[in-house]
């Protein structure tokens, strides 16, 4: 019997999710009472999901199996119909995904911010509250910068900031005088580990930074710029395009995460007394 690509890929994604992520309790309640969520690495590596998803399962009886990748990859998974719901953070790309008919309405869920971290000695002199000015200084220095270069929401934001600084291709600087730009093609935690071990600069979401333990000489150098705002959204994959998806269960998560209970659960997640994500759902 010839199997379709989707029939093969979706179970593999689920197996990957189970292998790489501790699935929330309650899975045994029903054989099919789960959803596959494609999400950004920051929601996992910050520790939010181990806090948030068990609360949803307790309230609904629905388990969540997570595939944690960059936002761009998560959207691609959604375009193939290999997830039931997306939880990501690149608003322009999310709106395009919905406009193209791959997802139902995008809903705002929560926000935090990006920070530029680097060696405490700050050899490029970037410290301050202006991310564009900081990157302009980095471009003129010979300091090392680690880019995720993985189509993630963080990578998309980084490229926007470079462009605002007048630099369309920061990687091109590596071939001449100026910044030592290193593309790792990796998740946020891995990028932070590389920056820590090499005393390099890196753009990070604050949630993953607060959860990161291997900081070495790194510290936050640029924060507070309104352009560093980092919005997260949730999108149910369109069942009209992908009838095999579990739209009703996915919608239950979407409704719960923007409900007062879901929003309070997000607000309650803290590390060292510091809140990592701030709920701002529009309950539409």
Indicate the structural class. alpha/beta
- Helical fraction equals 25-40%
| CA radius of gyration | 19 Å
Q: Round the mean pLDDT to the nearest integer and report it.
A: 89
Q: Count of DSSP helices?
A: 11
Beta-strand segment tally: 12
End-to-end distance, in Å?
44 Å
Principal-axis shape: globular
Low-confidence residue ranges = 1-9, 11-29
Instruction: Spell out the helices and strands N to C.
Output: HEHHEHEHEHEHEHEHEEHHEEE
Determine the strand fraction and express it as a percent band: 15-25%
Q: Tell me about the largest β-sheet.
A: 10 strands, mixed
Tags for this model:
disordered N terminus; 284 residues; 12 strands; alpha/beta; ten-stranded mixed beta sheet; 11 helices; two-stranded antiparallel ribbon; 39% helix; 22% strand
SSE inventory with pairings:
Layout: H1 5-20, E1 34-40, H2 41-45, H3 48-60, E2 63-69, H4 71-79, E3 85-88, H5 91-99, E4 107-119, H6 131-140, E5 144-147, H7 153-164, E6 180-183, H8 188-198, E7 201-205, H9 206-211, E8 218-222, E9 229-236, H10 247-257, H11 260-267, E10 270-271, E11 274-275, E12 278-279
Parallel strand pairs: 1-2, 1-3, 5-6, 5-7
Antiparallel strand pairs: 3-9, 4-7, 4-8, 4-9, 4-12, 10-11
Q: In words, what does this structure look like?
A:
- 44% of the residues are buried.
- The protein has helices at residues 5-20, 41-45, 48-60, 71-79, 91-99, 131-140, 153-164, 188-198, 206-211, 247-257, 260-267, and strands at residues 34-40, 63-69, 85-88, 107-119, 144-147, 180-183, 201-205, 218-222, 229-236, 270-271, 274-275, 278-279.
- Strands 1, 2, 3, 4, 5, 6, 7, 8, 9 and 12 form a ten-stranded mixed beta sheet that branches. The protein has a two-stranded antiparallel ribbon with strand order 10-11.
- The termini are far apart.
- The chain is of the alpha/beta class.
- A hairpin with a 2-residue loop joins strand 10 (270-271) and strand 11 (274-275).
- It has eleven helices and twelve strands.
- It is 39% helix and 22% strand.
- Residues 1-9 and 11-29 have low confidence and may be disordered.
